């Protein structure tokens, strides 16, 4: 059966299914769904848990081996991490067969970080959903984010002012993991009480590193309006410019290195591994490398050098204005 994220808790209270399939590209929500299932399974006597990571070299007989009863526990949860949402022909066959005859002493939890239309419509996914519960995790839309943030804060006992929710929604740009961290930070600092805009500004001053890399992503995407909003926020909380420059320089060097490697004929996947670019960021780097040329990269590094000199009083001008000029030059 297919259910939504909000329905999972109620479903678990009614009883544990033999199979769970969690798929979606919102890491925080996927993780929290899996956490709920693991906790419910443990509470119902599934004391043993075995973790399996599926990659290109995964032997699907490992899943059958994991299903073998243990000497120490009669009930087990098998936590299968299928990151790509693509089990391949052999894996699809194994999962389909599992769905046809699930073991009541086993809970199979399959989680996928990538979840496209072909995965959602696959025979193996339909089979797992029919045998147990399937949760398709959808991103929280921009118009839904303020409500999501408010509910999250109230779960901690906080009563946010309306402006607080708007500020967080604008600042976090839909990054739910960062939003959760910010709310947890506020809960630790303030506890269950009314939360004001000043409370948020004081609390987020220590998390400017996240904002710096958010700014870097807007820079690579050429998203001028969003980038300028982040710059304004960073300036408002007196974020050290060297921290911002470090993030921007790192991301620009990564994009330029990727572009040059592609021009020389290297394998894209090998380059991403060499540059330590996570899958969630690969599209940003790929798009920037296609959009920006040598002249743009050279001009960007030159402006970053100017920001550095201005911040140290070694050149005239406002470094924050130069930073905004940098964003404008890469968005043009």
What structural class do helix, strand and pairing data support? alpha/beta
Per DSSP, the total helix count is 17
CATH architecture of the largest domain: 3-Layer(aba) Sandwich
What number of domains?
3
Largest sheet: 6 strands, parallel
* Quantity of strands, as a count: 8
The name of the CATH topology of the largest domain is Rossmann fold
For the record, what CATH class of the largest domain applies?
Alpha Beta
Mean pLDDT: 89
Specify the overall morphology.
globular
Radius of gyration: 24 Å
The low-pLDDT segments are: none
Cα-to-Cα separation, first versus last residue: 48 Å
Q: Order of strands in the sheet with the most strands?
A: 1-6-2-5-4-3
* String of helices and strands: EHEHEHEHEHHEHEHHEHHHHHHHH
Helix fraction by DSSP (H/I, runs of at least 4) = 55-70%
CATH superfamily of the largest domain: P-loop containing nucleotide triphosphate hydrolases
- Portion of residues in beta strands equals 5-15%
Characterization of the model:
- The structure is a single chain.
- This protein is α/β, with parallel strands linked by helices and 332 residues long.
- It has three domains: 2-137, P-loop containing nucleotide triphosphate hydrolases (Rossmann fold, 3-Layer(aba) Sandwich); 145-195, Helicase, Ruva Protein, domain 3, CATH 1.10.8; 209-331, Zinc Finger, Delta Prime, domain 3 (Up-down Bundle).
- The chain is built from 17 helices and eight strands.
- The chain has helices spanning 8-14, 27-43, 61-66, 88-100, 117-120, 123-131, 145-155, 162-172, 176-190, 197-204, 208-221, 224-236, 241-263, 268-274, 279-291, 294-311, 319-331, and strands at residues 2-3, 19-24, 48-53, 76-81, 106-112, 133-137, 159-160, 194-195.
- The strands form two sheets. A six-stranded parallel sheet has the order 1-6-2-5-4-3. Strands 7-8 form a two-stranded parallel ribbon.
- Helix 11 packs parallel to helix 17 (319-331).
- The longest helix has 23 residues, at 241-263.
């Amino acid at each position: 059966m297919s259910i939504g994220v909000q329905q999972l808790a109620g479903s678990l209270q009614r009883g544990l299914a033999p199979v769970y399939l969690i798929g979606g590209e919102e890491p925080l929500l996927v993780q929290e769904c899996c956490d709920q299932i693991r906790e419910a399974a443990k509470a119902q006597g599934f004391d043993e848990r075995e973790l399996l990571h599926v990659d290109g070299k995964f032997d699907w007989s490992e899943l059958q081996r994991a299903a073998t009863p243990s000497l120490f526990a009669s009930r087990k949860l098998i936590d299968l991490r299928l990151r790509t949402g693509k089990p391949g022909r052999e894996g699809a066959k194994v999962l389909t067969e599992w769905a046809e005859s699930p073991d009541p002493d086993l809970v199979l939890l399959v989680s996928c970080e990538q979840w496209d239309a072909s995965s959602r419509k696959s025979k193996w996914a339909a089979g797992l959903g029919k045998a147990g519960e399937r949760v398709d995790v959808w991103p929280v839309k921009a118009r839904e984010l303020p409500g999501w943030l408010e509910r999250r804060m109230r779960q901690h006992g906080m009563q946010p002012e309306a402006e607080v929710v708007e500020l967080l929604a604008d600042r976090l740009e839909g990054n739910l993991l960062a939003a959760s961290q910010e709310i947890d930070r506020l809960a630790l600092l303030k506890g269950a009480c009314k939360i004001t805009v000043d409370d948020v500004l004081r609390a987020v001053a220590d998390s400017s590193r996240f904002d710096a890399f958010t700014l870097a992503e807007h820079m690579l995407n050429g998203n001028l309006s969003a980038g300028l909003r982040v710059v304004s926020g960073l300036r408002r909380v007196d974020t050290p410019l060297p921290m911002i420059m470090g993030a921007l320089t790192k991301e620009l060097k990564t994009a330029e290195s990727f572009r040059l490697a592609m021009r020389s004929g290297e394998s894209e996947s090998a380059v991403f591994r060499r540059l330590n670019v996570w899958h969630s960021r690969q599209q940003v780097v790929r798009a920037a490398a296609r959009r920006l040329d040598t002249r743009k990269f050279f001009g960007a590094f030159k402006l970053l050098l100017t920001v550095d000199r201005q911040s140290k009083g070694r050149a005239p001008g406002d470094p924050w204005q130069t930073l905004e000029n940098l964003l404008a030059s890469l968005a043009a």
